[in-house]
Amino acid sequence: MKGQVPCFAHVSMPVRALNSLMPMHLWFSPLGEVLTAGPTLAKLAGKAAFSGMPFQEVLEVHRPFPVSDMAGLTTLEGERLGLRLYALPEHNLKGSVVVLPDGGAFLNLSLGLSVIEVVGRYRLTLRDFAPSELAVEMLYLVEAKTAVLEEYKRLNTRLKRAREQAEERAATDMLTGLRNRRALQTALNAAVNGAQPFGLMHVDLDYFKQVNDRLGHAAGDEVLQVVARILLDETRRSDTVARAGGDEFIILFLGLVDARQLLRIGRRIIAQLEEPIPFGEDTCRVSASIGMTLSTFYTHPDPRQMLKDADDALYEAKRAGRGQVRVVRI
Questions:
Q1: Which residues are catalytic?
Q2: Which residues form a coiled coil (predicted)?
């Protein structure tokens, strides 16, 4: 009859009911051939059907003792079986057998402790297990644990991102986007502690007060933002460009201690800064005085002393007429 499997003891069993109650079953005929196989078992083994395959080509039992034929299987009724499907060799399964009156047998299988691994690998769902299967309870727990872990990961990611953003804001000058004095001090200490040679340049704008007095602080802010872009354009990604406050900027050139090259960079920065800066219908004009020093000038470089020396060289440039670069005299 369609929708049913062979009967025994005058009782037939619909396929749907059998598959629902035992989705990982094998039903063997008295001759040891597979009559039906549960849908989950077929899904795991990658076989459309086991029907007609002889016992010895389907599985081997290794617990409580080795069995390789139907006659041996029928002696294990009531025992807890450990077995392996040839189509699924990497997984040890568990099972129990019921011998039928006609000499055939029902073998019901389970995944045992490997259920979590198998579920993930073969994309099994709750519909692949019998409702009374203990694995279902485990899957609910795993699903809940997975949901909690995923939420925990998302929360950690958000917290990490928020922390990084807060740290970035704490190290950034909000007007120009450059590093601030705190970030500069961190970079200086790292260079000194790491015994890395570096050049230090102190840039102070000339005629900036006149811009503020003539056009207001909005114009001054625009000039500072343009200055920041110029300084970034004239330096490398590995350099630290910081706004020290007001119209003062400090640049740390990591690994660059060639005084002549730094002088050229300083003069190029001044030339760029002296270009007119549009502001509405007006034009802002500034220049810069620059003082610089090198870590190689010192037996034991000290950030505070180097900052002071660069500042002294800066004011020497201002006294000399502004718009100039001076190197500290050690």
A1: 247
A2: 145-172
